[in-house]
Design brief:
It is a single chain. The chain has a single domain, classed as Zn peptidases (Aminopeptidase, 3-Layer(aba) Sandwich), CATH 3.40.630. The longest helix is centred in the middle third of the chain and has 23 residues. The chain is of the alpha/beta class and about 325 residues long. It contains nine helices and ten strands. The protein has an eight-stranded mixed β-sheet with strand order 1-2-6-3-7-10-8-9, with helices on both faces.
Length: about 325
């Protein structure tokens, strides 16, 4: 009888240990896994000549896709696809045969089972390839966002390994063909792995490792675009999270509806916003190396990249674990 009693106590103990309340843990414990040196190590590979500028459908882009897949496998982040592949294949026919076959790369951290809702974190991993004898490595555009996504995924996986599953599932979506017209994210939005209606928000990272001319004297900034376009609540969550954890100066210059650059429409978040899914587009602004072969890893501010990635992690943590999804109070769809 005593043996049975001890067995039941042990079973109860381990069951409780495995089912921890995510509200009981400080996410700063896991944000510490997002480190400048680790980001640098990854980006010096991802934006190297070996990947040949990651042009859509070309050999370098395939190598980059494999790099992302291998990282997710190494940390135990699985694929959400039924066949276990990390690649959402996009056939050439989707592009009217103007581009080769290509693929989005997907990693997924399941939620705790209390809801079917998910949060999508995205970054495009393609760039513009080789022109003449110049390789356009795209370290900032968007190697910076790509490696940040990997480190954010790793931080969440560390929490899961400690028993802290997020309430909502988190999809890490590395999209292809952004440079061809946001086509990889368009394909995903039309062929979603999870229902679009179950997607509570999209946090999109595109160029987050540099400092623009307007902030050379104060690099502690981050451009946010779209955070209040559909959901005032998402904007408030973002502001409060930044104030609590990171204290970057959030700059909304490019969020203006009359912004002549129209950046709100020019990165992959827009293919979610079209469906009234609340979005935030994280951006460092433009620089002289944009779409030049001089966009190289040595010009990235890695400490700043880590700090910005932590803001995205903390914001994702809040959205993934709050009781209700961000309310859409400014829908655009009729």
């Amino acid at each position: 009888m005593r043996i049975i009693y001890l067995f039941l106590c042990a079973t109860f103990f381990f069951a409780c240990k495995a089912q921890k309340e995510v509200s009981d843990v400080d996410p700063e414990i896991y944000a510490q896994n997002i480190k400048a040196q680790t980001l640098k190590d990854k980006l010096y590979v991802f934006a190297s000549d070996e990947f040949e500028g990651r042009d859509t459908g070309k050999e370098g882009q395939k190598k980059a896709a494999k790099f992302i897949e291998n990282f997710y496998k190494s940390i135990g982040v699985t694929s959400p696809l039924k066949d276990g592949s990390y690649f959402q294949e996009i056939p050439s026919s989707y592009f009217n045969d103007r581009l080769p076959d290509t693929e989005n790369v997907l990693g997924f951290i399941p939620g705790d089972g209390s809801t079917d809702e998910i949060l999508v974190l995205s970054a495009h991993y393609d760039h513009i390839g080789v022109k003449g004898d110049k390789i356009f490595n795209g370290a900032d555009d968007d190697g910076s966002g790509s490696v940040a996504l990997l480190e954010i995924a790793n931080a969440f996986k560390k929490a899961v390994d400690d028993g802290f599953k997020p309430k909502r599932g988190i999809l890490f979506l590395h999209v292809t063909a952004e440079e061809k017209g946001l086509l990889g994210s368009k394909y995903y939005s039309e062929n979603p792995v999870f229902p679009i209606d179950a997607t509570v928000a999209n946090l999109n990272t595109d160029m987050i490792g540099r400092v623009d001319d307007d902030h050379k004297d104060n690099p502690n900034y981050f451009y946010l675009i779209g955070s209040d376009r559909l959901s005032t609540e998402l904007h408030e969550i973002s502001e409060a999270t930044n104030e609590k954890y990171v204290q970057l100066e959030l700059d909304y210059k490019y969020n203006a509806k009359d912004d002549p650059n129209r950046f709100y429409y020019r990165s992959d978040h827009y293919n979610f916003a079209k469906f009234d899914i609340p979005v935030i587009f994280y951006f460092n602004g433009t620089h002289d190396d944009y779409h030049q072969h001089t966009d190289t890893p040595d010009k990235i501010n890695y400490e700043l990249l880590a700090k910005r990635a932590k803001l995205i992690f903390y914001t994702a943590w809040e959205i993934a674990n709050r009781d209700k999804r961000p309310f859409v109070d400014q829908p655009t769809r009729k």
